[in-house]
Amino acid sequence: MVKPSVLVTRRWPAAVEAQLAENYDAVLNTGDKPMSPAEIREALKRYDAVLPTVTDTLNAEALDVPRAQTKILANYGVGYSHICEPAARNLGMTVTNTPDVLSECTADLAMTLLLMVARRAGEGERELRAGGWSGWRPTHLVGTKVSGKTLGIIGFGRIGQEMARRAHHGFGMNILVQNRSRLSSDVLKHFNATQVDTVDEMLPQCDFVSLHCPGGAANRHLINSRRLDLMKPGAFLINTARGEVIDEFALIQALMFDVIGGAALDVFDGEPRISPDLLQCDNLVMLPHLGSATREAREAMGFRVLENLRDFFAGQTPRDKVI
Ligand code: DGY
């Protein structure tokens, strides 16, 4: 039997690549070089399946391929706002993602960022490495207590819920939630959370705000200068979702003029390019998109892609079909 042809756009964990190569006529990206939109367009003409990830541009232009050979885009990652939904639908493509398997690790990282920015851990590390530590003193790098404070979670999907679990059960935080749909009282009770109707209603009540909503046009600049002004002075903003959810220019102003206490970002608008002004903000912790970066999660994401492919080529609906 002829094996379906499959193109992987980035280097994947070795165990997953090995299994992929066994079951498919697979082209792996062993050089791990990001693919250009033109290369992606060519791939869509040649391969039965393309396995992209967040670094790939699959906008309307890239997907404007009238006689595409590709029938499935099996995305490596849970967020898929880099894939233009109407264009993929027009081509009759199936799109899948990899939910669940990275939720705990991503929430761990969001909690890491929250703690780092509250306790000024980034500033402390930078000072120490630069040889600037002059010893213990009562007023040195004094941060903010986390336990018992109020955390606002925007987007209460799997990752948002894992964040709430850590914050509530581990740190006794009060949880406010803003979500597109109404949540059941059982879910809210489990996290001792209260759902609010709007982001505007939530922001003035929170000491910390953590973003867990999808990216894309609908949530672009959800956090803008008006909403940053609604936050408590001294409050902290954490983003492990997508860079475009925050208006970065507005955030830089808010950080520079102490409108909020600080921010911690794992994702950036237009990453890996980082605005030089962000680098000037001391009250900002930055990580290079590490949310799901554990051995366990990255392997599980790959195997989840393989499950989706297997089902698709067996004529079944893949469990993680999003389009
Ligand atoms: C995800 O899974 O969405 C991560 O951000 C990587 O794309």
From TrEMBL:
It holds the Pfam family 2-Hacid_dh_C. InterPro entries: D-isomer_2-hydroxyacid_DH, D-isomer_2_OHA_DH_cat_dom, D-isomer_DH_CS, D-isomer_DH_NAD-bd, NAD(P)-bd_dom_sf. The keyword Lyase does not apply. SUPFAM superfamilies: Formate/glycerate dehydrogenase catalytic domain-like, NAD(P)-binding Rossmann-fold domains. Residues 17-322 form the D-isomer specific 2-hydroxyacid dehydrogenase catalytic domain. Keywords: Oxidoreductase. Residues 111-291 form the D-isomer specific 2-hydroxyacid dehydrogenase NAD-binding domain. The keyword Ubl conjugation does not apply. Belongs to the D-isomer specific 2-hydroxyacid dehydrogenase family. PANTHER family: 2-HYDROXYACID DEHYDROGENASE-RELATED, GLYOXYLATE_HYDROXYPYRUVATE REDUCTASE B. This is D-glycerate dehydrogenase.
